[in-house]
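S.,

Sequence below, as promised.
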Amino acid sequence: MKKTGSSLDWCIVRIGEDKNWWIDSISDNENWDADNLSIIDPKQFLYINELLDSMTEFGLDTQLVDEAFFTFAIEEEIDGGMIKLVRVRDSLLKAEDMLFALPDVLDEDKGPYADFLNHVSEKRVSMLNELIEFAEPYTQEEMEEVLAEKQNNDFLEGRRSHFSDELFSILEFVPDGFAIDADLDDESDKSKDDEEDYSDLESDLIEVSDKEEKLLPDADLKWDEEEEKDDTTPYEGGAPDESA
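The prediction came back faster than expected:
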């Protein structure tokens, strides 16, 4: 499926104080406002993909995943600790390189990303109803009401919304007062505990290109502290700390 304009060719990204990646400038500034525009980094998407895998048996449509994101690869490091990313047309789920993912929110209400969020919300609710014995079936509307309240509270408290936070809140959602199967809890806890050690994931990845390897010396999106510039904030990667 062809995405919008050929003008979306590159973007410049930086690490924010929240340890997430944010877009500083973008080639298609007619359709995109770079102000507070976030982007999902490769490690975050690895974790998101793990969560999506658990939905496969509930009918996850993987095509919607690829249609929902524009993909970018690392081209070079530039002044100020920023990175230039270039647009690629690779599938996020099948890519051989580590890719950044920018949700297609050009049409926030009816676009591919909106369709994707609705789809994974539906599958998450199906999973919850399968794993938890509710007195009455839990509904997607109930979940969306809870998440909307949380998002509104974050806004009132001045917290910027990152795309990864939005996805984690759906893919990890469990209603207050309930718990999913213990085995699944253990698997989820293991994923979070491993966010500082991705050796098990790295063994499954095809080696990144020489250009990427130079920028990501430990394949973990962490900059060498000895080479770090004074104005560069070290990146710790992985899923954001939900307790923050």
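Residues 13 and 23 are 4 Å apart (CA to CA).

Coffee later?
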